[in-house]
Each structure stands twice: as structure tokens, then as C-alpha cells.
Design a protein that fits this description.
alpha/beta, Rossmann fold, 2 domains, 7-stranded mixed beta sheet, 6-stranded mixed beta sheet, 12 helices, about 20% strand, signal, amino-acid transport, Leu_Ile_Val-bd, Branched-chain amino acid ABC transporter substrate-binding protein
């Protein structure tokens, strides 16, 4: 009789546990980045940032609308290819995700944003800086970094005013990001009283830059701006050295990674590269970023490459809006997220303007000494 009673108790406990789990709210958050191809290290860095946030949220036992939320990460690879980016965007829509963090590149983020907008799914990019992304009129598009107008403009002014550049060359990779940031850089150079001595372009898969660098060398440049990613900038620095081009290289956040010195194969001189990361923390906020970097390394065994903290913040901003709205339904939490004002993240304070851009976005200028990336200053 006692055994039968124990069995009944065990069965009842299982039923109660099942009922409790059935009442849990499953929240699916999509993440998209290039986890294959030349910048897979950056895509994986982004995905790790998302995974870290999801794991912490599940450990905290977050409740939304009175129900315990179980967060699931649906991670997809777009290989930095616009067609593949659109394909995985449709896949996430079909999977009924509650929101999307990504994509990494402007060239994949912009076409994918149309798909998410049509489905009413909120999207926060942690790294796409092309201004067009938030200027399409989509209410679902947000970003947590400053755009290319700010980034390219700051570097253009820096090249003329701080570096006193007399002969400035511009090279871009013809992607939405690379070309966009290069154009904003050139505009700022001219507005600051400088001039562009040479304009060249390559592509994001190129490995041989002899022709364009030979053309650049003829202008005797003291500054070379490259609009693109570190996978191309590294080999370009090697070939600049081989051709005897001793100019400073400036670039946006795409080259501003901890992997750049390795990709350059020892060809970088100290302080030769100056880059701007779309984001930045100052004063007491540095402690939060340092703690994040330490926790990231402990969890994954590697250093943060670049965007992981922004992905981490993007996930948490989205979930904070769900909690405040009492619902993970995009229709309910999207208007709440749009009004995000003063969220304290590891990357700084996050507030969105009417376009979905971050207000008062910061930039951090860096250089390299040996293999170490060194901060110059934070600019707003």
C-alpha cells in the first residue's frame, strides 16, 4: 500500500512539474551573423555575446506577464552574403521568433530588415552602421551603435585636423558598409579643408592589392583610409609595407579588432593604424565593460573580438521591453522598446530616437602598439 502511495505521489509530482513547464513562456530570439567565411571570427563573437545574454537571462528566471520565460537562441549564419541573409531572415520569420538581433554587416542587415518589417518582428543590429538601415521608415529597425555619418565623419576630421594629412587616399570594398563609411570619411575630409588624392576600390574577398596600392603610392600618401573589414585590411597592410607605403591607415569598426595584428602578419608599425569603434564607455562605465570582457573570456576561453558587448546589450534591451510590456508578442513590446530611454548597458546608456538610432552615440578611437589595441579617446 505504501509503495502504491509513493508511486502515486511521484506521478502527481511529475504531472505538476509538467504543468509548470507547460506554463513557461518560450521566447525565441534569433541571431544572425557570418559564422562562416572571411569574417567568421566576428560573426562567432557576435553569436557568443547573444548566447551569454540568453544563458544569464535563463539563470535569472525572468518573468514576463507573470510567466517564467524560457529563452531560446536561434542562431543563423548569413556568411556576410545579402542573399543568404535574406534567406535566413525568412527562415526566422517562419520559425515565429519573437525578435531578432543582427545582422552584423550593413549589406545583409538592410535587405533583411525589409523582411522583418513586413512580418512585424523587431530587429536590433549591434553593428550595422550604414545610415540607410534606419532611414527606410521601418518601425521595427533599431541599432545600438553610432552610424557611418558619425563614424566616417569623425575619422575624416581626425585625418585633417589631428594627423595633418596632406595626401589622403581612400580605398573601399564596395559593400554597403565599406563604401558608405568611406564616402562619409571623404565628405568630412573635404569639409575640414583637406582633399582626396586618390580613390580606389577592391572587394571583400580580395587578396591582391598591387594595382590599387601602386596607384595610391604614386600620390605619396600620408594617410590611407580603408572602408571594409579586418580580413582584407590585414593583408593590405602587409602589401603596403612590401611596396614601401609608410602611411597611417585609418578605418572604421570593421578593422578595429583584436585579430587585426595577426591578420597583418607583423606588418603593422606601432601607432600606424587608427580606427574607430562605434561605441564607447567612459569613467565609471569602464568597470562594467571590463567585467563583461572578463566574464566573456571565462565562459568562452577567448577575448572579445569587437561587437559581442553590443549584442549582449541588444538582447537585454529587447527583453527589458518585453518585461515592461508584460508580453513577448512583438505587437505589444515593440512600442515599449521604441521608447527605450536610459537603459544602462555594458556599452553605455542606450536610448533610441524616432528613427531607431541610438541617441548621443559614442565612438572610441584606438591605435595598436604591437599586438595590443590601445584606446586613444572617446568621442561623442
Amino acid at each position: 500500500m505504501q509503495m502504491k502511495f509513493n508511486v502515486l505521489c511521484a506521478a502527481a509530482a511529475l504531472m505538476l512539474a509538467g504543468a509548470a513547464s507547460a506554463q513557461d513562456l518560450v521566447v525565441r530570439i534569433g541571431h544572425v551573423g557570418p559564422t562562416s567565411g572571411g569574417i567568421a571570427h566576428l560573426g562567432k563573437d557576435n553569436e557568443n555575446g547573444a548566447r551569454m545574454a540568453i544563458d544569464e537571462l535563463n539563470a535569472k528566471g525572468v518573468t514576463i506577464g507573470g510567466k517564467k520565460a524560457k529563452f531560446e537562441l536561434l542562431a543563423e549564419d548569413d556568411a556576410a552574403d545579402p542573399k543568404q541573409g535574406s534567406a535566413v531572415a525568412n527562415k526566422l520569420v517562419d520559425s515565429r521568433v519573437n525578435g531578432v538581433i543582427g545582422h552584423l554587416n550593413s549589406g545583409t542587415t538592410i535587405p533583411a530588415s525589409k523582411i522583418y518589417s513586413a512580418a512585424g518582428i523587431p530587429q536590433i543590429s549591434p553593428s550595422a552602421t550604414n545610415p540607410q538601415y534606419t532611414r527606410q521608415g521601418f518601425k521595427t529597425a533599431f541599432r545600438v551603435v553610432a552610424d557611418d555619418v558619425h563614424l566616417g565623419g569623425t575619422l575624416g576630421r581626425y585625418a585633417v585636423r589631428e594627423l595633418k594629412g596632406k595626401s589622403i587616399a581612400v580605398i573601399d570594398d564596395r559593400t554597403a558598409y565599406g563604401q558608405g563609411v568611406a564616402e562619409e570619411f571623404a565628405k568630412a575630409v573635404k569639409a575640414s579643408g583637406g582633399s582626396i588624392a586618390s580613390s580606389q576600390f577592391t572587394n571583400d574577398k580580395a587578396t591582391d592589392f598591387t594595382a590599387i596600392l601602386t596607384a595610391v603610392k604614386a600620390t605619396k600618401p600620408d594617410v590611407v583610409f580603408y572602408g571594409g573589414m579586418d580580413a582584407v585590411a590585414g593583408p593590405m597592410l602587409r602589401q603596403m609595407k612590401q611596396l614601401g607605403i609608410n602611411a597611417k591607415m585609418l578605418g572604421g569598426d570593421g578593422i578595429c579588432t583584436s585579430k587585426l595584428p595577426e591578420l597583418a602578419g607583423g606588418a603593422m608599425a606601432d601607432n600606424q593604424v587608427i580606427c574607430a569603434e562605434a561605441g564607447g564607455v567612459e569613467g565609471t562605465q569602464k568597470a562594467g565593460m571590463d567585467a563583461f570582457r572578463a566574464a566573456y573570456k571565462k565562459k568562452f576561453g577567448i577575448d572579445v573580438q569587437l561587437y559581442a558587448p553590443y549584442v549582449y546589450d541588444a538582447v537585454n534591451v529587447m527583453v527589458a521591453a518585453m518585461v515592461k510590456a508584460g508580453s513577448a508578442d512583438p505587437k505589444a513590446y515593440l512600442p515599449v522598446m521604441a521608447k527605450t530611454d536610459g537603459y544602462k548597458g555594458v556599452t553605455g546608456t542606450i536610448s533610441f530616437d524616432e528613427k531607431g538610432d541610438i541617441k548621443n552615440g559614442a565612438l572610441t578611437l584606438f591605435t595598436y602598439k604591437g599586438p595590443q589595441r590601445t584606446e586613444i579617446k572617446v568621442v561623442r
